[in-house]
Amino acid sequence: MELVTPDLGLLFWTGIVFCLLLFLLVKFAWKPILGAVNAREEKITSALELAKKTQEEMKMLHAANENLLKEARSERDLMIKDAKEVASEMVDDAKGIAKVEAEKLVGAARESINAEKGAAIAELKAKMATFSIEIAEKVVRGELSSADKQKALADKLVDDINLN
Amino acid sequence: MIKAFLTVTLMLLSSAVFALEDESSHEHEDEKAFNVNEMIKHHISDAHEWHLWGDTHDGTTIYLPVILIDGGLKMFSSSHLYHGESKTVTDESGREFHYKVGKGSAAGYAMYHEEIYRLINGELVFEYGHPANGSNVYDLSITRNVASLFITFFLMILIMLSVARFYKKNGAVAPKGIAKFIEPLIVFVRDDIAKANIGEAKYKKYVHYLLTIFFFIWVSNLTGLIPLLGSNLTGNISVTLFLASATLLITVFSGNKSYWKHIFATPGVPVALMPIMIPIELVGILTKPFALMIRLFANITAGHIIILALVSIIFINQSAVWGFLSVPMALFISVLELLVAFLQAYLFAMLSALFIGAAVEEAHH
């Protein structure tokens, strides 16, 4: 049957066209296309690997950061504690000094007050003595201004002695 | 919405089919009734003209160049044969044969059933139902199948070079446009056909051939399905014969020691059986590509025959009403043929890869 009888002309042209097609496609299509596809696949693989590596590095960095932060935090706490201690010490010191100083001042004030008081009392005493002498003088003078009075006084004094 | 679209499509398709098939019925107007056999045979066979529409040889036809090697190169348009003088001869048993005698530059040649013969004394001699004028005329004409071979060639060059140009221009980036469509197929052939059957180590040598054969068959199968543009290229035994021979040659020439040892001294077979085994194995080398050849030819030709036969229902019954039965069925088969077009290309490439893979496989016992 002619349907299953190969035709020489078509066989000839198929051969020529197919070989030419194979040659042209290998040279200008398959090699560049497969090259690009392979290159891209390699690029993707390496990019994925790089991403994985970067992720791990990030993880490590993160951990390191955490440690650093922890250290910094504890250091800060320590510093705050020290500062607090120093501050309270300073406050205590200042308080003590102020107390001593105040006591000193109070003592000095008291001393000067006492001194003043003593001086005032002495002066008062001297004045009183003078006054008393003056008064006594005046009284004596009044008592002894007349003979009657002198006698009355003498009597009185005698009375007093008697009474005793 | 979809229903309306389908109805319109079917109506358009059926009207196209009426128009198309009107010619085929006219074609055989000189015969008594519509001859399904003749019509289908005409459509799936090769021809020296590209018949588009209208009455045969009088309607719109592209006359293709005839190239003959007959003591030198001879070229002329096939119209000199189609429009030549019709002659009828009767052989000894009383059968009638109609053939055309070339005129003008085709003088001295005659065409009978698309075959070109040299005239002896101005006529064709028939013996046992066949022309007996000898076949020392080599017909290298650009027939319809050769022309569609060229179409496939230019289509593939156009598509693949534009894909290659994309990568050349953009480097190794994600594909876009036509490259986005073609690349998965190329990767599919590389990974699932070449690598899977030949192996990672050796596939590189054969992947170019497999890619070419896969896309050649696929594109040819698809263009064959297009009305007017298409031709039954991959359903022609000459084409599949060439493709299967190419696979055979590659297999035989890449066969390694272990491959030939399996053929000439199959391990584990008693020496006494060798005289039987060696011929069987040798025949086996040929049967594999032979099956490739027949499978592709038969599948594609069968697809064309089914579609033509279903459309013929209308003309056998001489009623357009039958279109409601025949058109949906033909449409269904056409869509199925799209799948078959891919499947056959895949199978051919896959089996070629399998045969090559068996030939280059390292011994592992």
Amount of helix of chain B? 55-70%
Which structural class should the secondary elements of chain B be placed in?
A: alpha+beta
How much strand content do the residues of chain B show? 5-15%
Q: Could you tell me the radius of gyration of chain B in angstroms?
A: 25 Å
Give the CA-CA distance, first to last residue of chain B.
64 Å
User: Main β-sheet of chain A: number of strands, strand sense, barrel status?
Assistant: none
Number of strands of chain A: 0
Largest interface: A-B, 35 and 50 residues
Structural category of chain A: mainly alpha
Oligomer: heterodimer
Number of domains of chain B: 2
Structure description:
The complex is a heterodimer of chains A (164) and B (365). Chain A is rod-shaped and about 200 Å long. Chain A has helices at residues 8-143, 147-163. The N and C termini of chain A lie far apart (191 Å). Chain A contains 2 helices and no strands. Chain A has 164 residues and is an all-alpha fold. The relative contact order of chain A is 0.02. Chain B is of the alpha+beta class and 365 residues long. Chain B folds into 2 domains: 56-142, no CATH class; 144-360, no CATH class. Chain B has helices at residues 2-27, 36-44, 79-82, 144-170, 178-198, 207-225, 237-254, 257-264, 274-317, 323-360, and strands at 49-53, 60-63, 65-69, 73-77, 85-90, 96-101, 109-112, 115-118, 126-127, 130-131, 138-139. In chain B, the strands form 4 sheets. In chain B, strands 5-6-7-8 form a 4-stranded antiparallel sheet, with no helix packed on it. In chain B, helix 4 (144-170) crosses helix 5 and helix 7 runs parallel beside helix 10 (323-360). Mean pLDDT of chain B is 86; it is low at 11-31. Classes of the chains: A mainly alpha (164), B alpha+beta (365). Chain A binds chain B through residues 2-15, 17-18, 20-22, 24-26, 28-37, 39-40, 43, and chain B through 41, 44-46, 67, 113, 138-143, 145-146, 149-150, 152-153, 156-157, 160-161, 163-164, 167-168, 171-174, 183, 186-187, 190, 207-209, 211-212, 216, 236-239, 241-243, 246, 297, 301.
